[in-house]
Amino acid sequence: MSSSTPGKSSKADRTGASGATGRTGKTVPERTTATEAGAKTGGKSATKAAAKTPTKSATKSATKSATKAAAKTPTESATKAAAKPAAKSAPARKASATAAAAKAPAPRKAPKAESHLAMVRRARRINRELAEVYPYAHPELDFRNPFELLVATVLSAQTTDLRVNQTTPALFAAYPTPEDMAAAVPEEMEEIIRPTGFFRAKTKSLLGLSAALRDEFGGEVPGRLEDLVKLPGVGRKTANVVLGNAFGVPGITVDTHFGRLVRRWKWTDEEDPVKVESVVAGIFPKSEWTMLSHRVVFHGRRICHARKPACGACPIAPLCPSYGEGETDPDKARKLLKYEMGGRPGQRLSPPADYPGKPAPALGEG
Predict the structure, then answer these.
(1) Which residues contact 343 (CB under 8 A, 6 or more apart)?
(2) Residue 94 annotated as catalytic
(3) What is the Cα–Cα distance from 267 to 292, expressed in whole angstroms?
(4) Is the predicted pLDDT of residue 32 greater than 90, yes or no?
């Protein structure tokens, strides 16, 4: 029986202890046994292998394929295809609208307010232009003396100068003087002047003014405005016509044509003839009043008509702020011209020698 010596360890003890403590006394890692190594290796391999098993791979592939296939189903594809144009349509419309807006003309700016001085200059230029267009402008009533002009002007209310000119030859043949006319039988005079319209009222006026001329002025037509307007049927317009054309006294004749044109030309916006006369008299020198009246009336009757102005054939279109109210096409506008401007007879049966048009036909001739 053997016994160990105290303080010493056996070889076996040292060998067994060396697994835990080295000869230097430091601890060393334990050696992994084959079993444990196999267990570790096997465990990791098994886990990795399991992660890559055909079942999970197939599931993952199938899931992806199914998802892609589902995303590309005919219904959704059609929806996407339909949605794309719709999504693009809004920007496309916006781009088209932008392009259209770029091509469209810019809104016309409101014209600047015209100063009074600028208006006066433009008005006087219009008068000069009209003087070149109508150098032969004249009163379009046939007359041989102040009495005939006075009677013809009274008859011209609410009718044309042409109809008056066709009527007065018979009237003056029957009643050549104020004394003769004052003594006329009303019914006989009415029958003569019937073509001019309102013949009863006009007969009353002619009988009254003839009697006044006979009794108050010695059978002569007075040459003063204040005397003329006292005669039956005579207003400022008639008085200015007589004064300007029979006596050479400047006057502005505001008839329907004159009033219409000066408002279109923005000389004034007044409607009352007396106010229109006052405004226009302040724009032009007195020496121009009578001829200005003739030119404006000529233009109103031939080109600047009430219902359909011939804007495209108007020689003063660049000066007119109302250009475009009528026909602007040159060819169509030329067809709207009247009297000598349109190649037709004027209104006078006995026009002045310098009149370029043809004389009007007598009553019943055309």
Answers:
(1) none
(2) no
(3) 13
(4) no
pLDDT of the residue at 112: 75
Active site residue 237: yes
21: three-class secondary structure by DSSP? strand
Q: What pLDDT sits at residue 51?
A: 38
> Tens of pLDDT along 40-84?
444 444 334 333 444 444 444 444 444 444 444 444 444 344 444
CB 221 within 8 A of CB 239: no
Enter the tokens of residue 35. 């079993």
The sign one gets for the Cα dihedral 122, 125, 126, 127 is: positive
* Options 204, 227, 230, 255, the catalytic residue: 255
Residue 27 in 3-state DSSP? strand
Catalytic pick among 142, 161, 202, 237: 237
| Sign of the Cα pseudo-torsion (152, 156, 161, 165, in order) | negative
pLDDT at 102 over 80: no
Cα–Cα nearest to 180, from 146, 153, 206, 141: 206
Q: What is the model's pLDDT at position 44?
A: 42
Q: Which two tokens stand for residue 64?
A: 């992806």
